[in-house]
Amino acid sequence: MEDIAQRCIEIIAKSKSIPADSITLDSTFDELNVDSLDKINISFEVEEAFSIEIPDEALGTIKTVGDMVKGVTQLRENHPPATVTTP
Amino acid sequence: MRISSVGTAYPPHRYSQAAITEALRNRWKDRLEEPRLLNRLHANCGVEFRNLVFPLDVYENLSGFGPTNDAWIKAAVELGQKAITTALDRVGLSAADISAIFFASVTGISSPTIDARLINLMPFPTNVKRTPIFGLGCVAGAAGISRASDYVRAFPDQYALLLSVELCSLTWQDNDQSIANLISTGLFGDGSAAVIISGAETALAKEGCGPRVLDTRSTFYRNTEHIMGWSIGDLGFKIVLSPDVPKVVNEHLLGNVEGFLSDNNLSMGDISSYIFHSGGPKVLEAMETSLSLPPNALAPSWKSLREVGNLSAASVLAVMEDYLVNTPGKPGTYSILAAMGPAFCSELVLLQW
């Protein structure tokens, strides 16, 4: 969970060009000046970072960084990323 | 003067949001840099269904401003007639009883205007006074009620009709893959609404039919032209839609509402219901937050957005219809009807049931 939180915060910080230490789990996207389009772009980055697929309609319910971390955690639990095996 | 009746009419082709998104994604498959962006923008518009003038497969054959606007004229006349008939039938009036028509739309143009074409189809008096309104956009539903109310204030023994027809699907632009256009193709729907405003000395007003219009307030926000509107070119109407719309709502709405109520010796605590334009999720959230509204205060606006999308000027009228037909206020209670739109500007209407 901590790793997921840290990675999500890094993605948001990079996307908005703000210091990562200014972002907490309680930060709302409104406070961080993340608009709908930013949120969609962040969702693409998060999907790639965690090899998950976020449902299209889920973004409207994600209001805080904590909501995003919780959602990513649940998606990873339900659909763990495939591991590469060699014969 | 009272809002005695509202009637809405929707075109017959009803689609889920997912079906519309899929159709546009296929249509623009060679144009979209990131097709998932369209899905994600549409999925977060707060819209589940929309009614469209044409079946989805017809739109790709519509090209150019002329043919598209001709289609708008034909459909606007048909839909407008249905909405007017519903509004009149609900209160037992005929078109012959109407003394003034206010017609508002921002999705097509014509001369003679749609109201004139309807006079040839319905028994309106030939001396009916016509005021076509183009360009107010989403605010025109509320502003139309205000202007029609001004009219019957001057002529209290008369009835005025407000008609709005908005066919937003006829403004989809293939050559514009901007975020604003992608959002607008997911947000705006097609529909029409007609409203009967009764002068204080009419039979309907004397019967107490519908809430009284106590006061209205227009507020213009200087130097906000870039927030919303059309860029009009050879291919028709290209959307201008800034992400700052919710910010403008946050900056202005509370002050506008408090000032308006104060001038009427009222305060926010006196208002029982909020009949607000279904602008979109961010706009509705900004309205709820800036006015500190209780949970579900805007439920009918959210419902309208889900069921038919943002109908521009007709949206607030569709929400008004829902209140009149399903949840009218208790006698003596107050409501605010409100919309905001291009300029940027707001229109507030104070009602008493």
SSE blueprint:
The complex is a heterodimer of chains A (87) and B (353).
Chain A (H helix, E strand, L loop, with lengths): L1 H15 L19 H15 L14 H14 L9
Chain B lengths: L1 E8 L3 E4 H11 L7 H9 L5 E4 L12 H26 L7 E8 L8 H6 L9 E6 L5 H15 L4 E9 L11 H9 L2 E9 L4 H4 L5 E9 L7 E6 L2 E6 L3 H19 L7 E6 L4 H10 L8 H10 L4 H14 L7 E8 L3 E8 L1
Parallel strand pairs in B: 4-5, 4-6, 11-12
Antiparallel strand pairs in B: 1-7, 2-3, 6-7, 8-13, 9-10, 12-13
Helix pairs in contact in B: 1-2, 2-6, 8-9, 10-11
Brief digest:
The complex is a heterodimer of chains A (87) and B (353). Chain A has 87 residues and is mostly helical.
Description:
The complex is a heterodimer of chains A (87) and B (353). Chain A is mainly alpha-helical and 87 residues long. Chain A has one domain (2-78): ACP-like (Non-ribosomal Peptide Synthetase Peptidyl Carrier Protein, Chain A), CATH 1.10.1200. Helix content of chain A is 51%, strand content 0%. Chain A has helices at 2-16, 36-50, 65-78. The N and C termini of chain A lie far apart (32 Å). The model of chain B has no long low-confidence stretch (mean pLDDT 96). Chain B has 2 domains: 2-206, Peroxisomal Thiolase, Chain A, domain 1 (3-Layer(aba) Sandwich), CATH 3.40.47; 212-352, Thiolase/Chalcone synthase (Peroxisomal Thiolase, Chain A, domain 1). Chain B is globular and about 60 Å long. With 353 residues, chain B is α/β, with parallel strands linked by helices. A 5-stranded mixed sheet of chain B has the order 1-7-6-4-5. In chain B, strands 8-13-12-11 form a 4-stranded mixed sheet, with helices on both faces. In chain B, strands 2-3 form a two-stranded antiparallel sheet. Classes of the chains: A mainly alpha (87), B alpha/beta (353). At the A-B interface, helix 2 of A face helix 2 of B.
